[in-house]
Amino acid sequence: MLKNYFKIAFRNISKHKGYSFINISGLAIGIACCLLILIYVRHELSYDQFHKKADRIVRISMESGGDNIAVTPSMVAPTLNQISPEIERWVRLYEPTRYSPAIISTGENKFQEENFLYADSSFFRIFSFDFIVGNPETALKNPRSLVLPKSTALKLFGSVDVLGETVNARIFNTNYDFEVTGVIENVPVNSHFTFNYLGSLHTMSSWSQLDDSQIRAANFFTYLLLNSSSSTESLRQTANAFIRDNQIQDRVDQLIFTPVTELYLNSNFDFEIAPMGSMQNVIGFIFLALMVLLIATINYVNLSTARSSRRGAEVGIRKALGAVKSQLVKQFYGESILITLISVVLALILVEFFKEPFFQLMGKDISFNLFTDPSAWMLLAGVTIITAALAGSYPAFLLSSYQPVRVLKGLLGSTGSDGTLRKGLVISQFAISTFLILCTVIIYQQTNFILTADLGFDDEEVIVLPARDSELAQKQDLLKSEVLRQPGVKGATYMSNIPGKVFGGYGSVHNTTMEPIGTAAGAADADLVQTLDIEVIAGTSFPDNPSYTREQGYVYLINEQLAQAHGWSPQEAIGKPFNVLGGREGEVVGVMADFNYQSLRDNVEPLALFIHEQMYNYLLVKVEPGNIQGTIASLENMWQDVAPHRPFEFEFLDQQLNALYQSELQTRNLLLAFSGLAIFIACLGLVGLSSFLIERRAKEIGIRKVLGASVSKIVALLSTDFLKLVAIGFVVGTPIAWYVMDQWLTNFAYRIDMNVAVFITVGLIAMIIAILTVSWQSIKAAVANPVDSLRSE
Hints:
Layout: H1 2-15, H2 17-45, E1 57-64, E2 67-69, H3 76-83, E3 87-94, E4 102-106, E5 109-113, E6 116-119, H4 123-126, E7 131-134, E8 145-149, H5 150-157, E9 166-171, E10 174-184, E11 197-200, H6 205-208, E12 221-226, H7 232-245, E13 254-259, H8 260-266, H9 279-306, H10 308-320, H11 325-361, H12 374-400, H13 404-408, H14 417-452, E14 462-466, H15 470-474, H16 476-485, E15 489-495, E16 504-505, E17 508-509, E18 516-517, E19 520-523, H17 528-532, E20 536-539, E21 554-559, H18 560-565, H19 570-573, E22 577-580, E23 584-592, E24 607-610, E25 618-623, H20 628-642, E26 651-652, H21 653-658, H22 662-696, H23 698-706, H24 711-745, H25 756-782, H26 786-790
């Protein structure tokens, strides 16, 4: 019997090739899209699950001044360990290359590197990283110990058998000779932090002392391994009671404990260890996957019900010969399963072909083998079963319910519940398509806005050169003067932090109320305003005075937000005494117009800049736009003469700023690709559906032509029915898209206004697409010879 079901199914597929092509290709594309997105979602949900003790690892963050901050002072972990029995182990991570890259040397090889971490010796007792050589128990025990991932070891030495080798690292102004004490497998791509070098925190003895009880600068990512019976709630209560009892709320409002497996998708902290994901995006991607699959499934249902009159006679004869409903249901389910299986095979080919471009589009280095990964097969099985069930259920029960007497007498009409459902499904398709198009357009407009917005300073043609080490510290003036001598260079300025990267949260105190004011701060030299074209609205820029020293008192440039926080107008702020926490007494010499030194997701926060040559990490070089490559070549030649100890590596400031919006750009690219495919699938189904429904009305069209109807009137008649459905779909999808996008835009302090014209334009585009899709079928029917359709009457 089963063999018979599949034989009939094969006959139907081969007999109706156009119908089968539309169904199979639509389902194949839908399943492939769904699989790719769900594999990506699976990856996003898997972060940090590979740690053997992941269920007991938590990270401590803190709330300070109303802001959630990922880093904590060094004393937090050892202090909590003393007062809380819930803690089994703890570890602190510190990333010096967050502010300036390190210079790594092995023999003649020199590299400018980021992702250098320091960690306590307990690191490998908490986190699970596989050792190739070395002992995880002792790898970070001694000062100047260094553990390398496999890729770094191969890069430096060409081998992983490198225990005892020496690696020189120039970090800030200090040279360290590290001994390699271990090599591990590369850090998994689904780790929320990564590193190319992992050094012992004991190397920095002043910050790694276990009895450190001082509230120092918050620079450490702090992790705890809890006892199996511990709870984060009891630990939180103990920690925050300690904060209250010791009256340190002026620096730490409260501590926040986040399970490590929840961190990647649920981080809302400033100063994160690495770019994080978004649970909102993951939910959106799941929804997108299901919507694309649903559109493809709707095609199958629509075409199956449209062909019901053709299959009615077959059902009537089978029932007259004794077939029962359950047998017919099995037969139609068999056809659905067969078409789905063929679609799945094609989908697997599409996935294998497009997985690399897709993961590149998403900025992920995900490697998986679809044919050997058990979880991928489970995902595929789930998608296959759901697709077959959704696609086959209604046609199976609809066709098997036909009464043989009515069918064989030709009384099976086309205006029953199947017609209503068919219209509803078409409306659903275009409601989903409208929703996806609108979301894509608005996300595209917002990303274009943040990439082109006026930030309040000139970020174009600005080259960023890392310039902090002990040798360059002695050559700051020489390096800058040589840079300014190069052809094509318009200006240069030193900064401790560049826009888009971390500005230290120093804080300041209100002059009269003594209330703390959250204040970002950093160092810059006298040419900052001119080089970056920052507007000074009151006072002056930094004094260009070679004889100035900090002992004469700090001079500050502050932004409008900081002046406002202190209750000053820009003019009133000039000459006011000012101090960022850290004993830097001075006065305000100028007030800058607010500029966006961080992401446009956030409002401009109070900012203070001061001169401090020992804090400069970067040299920003403004160049002429005409011959940038020639200017870079000149800079490189000059660099070899002034700083031969350091590789010449650079980035453009605008590219670094654009990297802040990587998540939004990935979402935009994903929607552009998959909303286009969703519309294509919907149109594919519309072609098939229109051809069947127009074929049903062939005699009506013939009669109308005999009675004098013109081709244009017939085309309009046939197209109007579909345009009405598309219009209803647009009306349904538009308010949903408006609401969802309005919620998404709340993530940005600076956002576009959603324009009604955009929605109207999208509606017109949907209408045009529908017209183009249906019109050629309508024209074909309208120009046909009416004799051919009326001959049997």
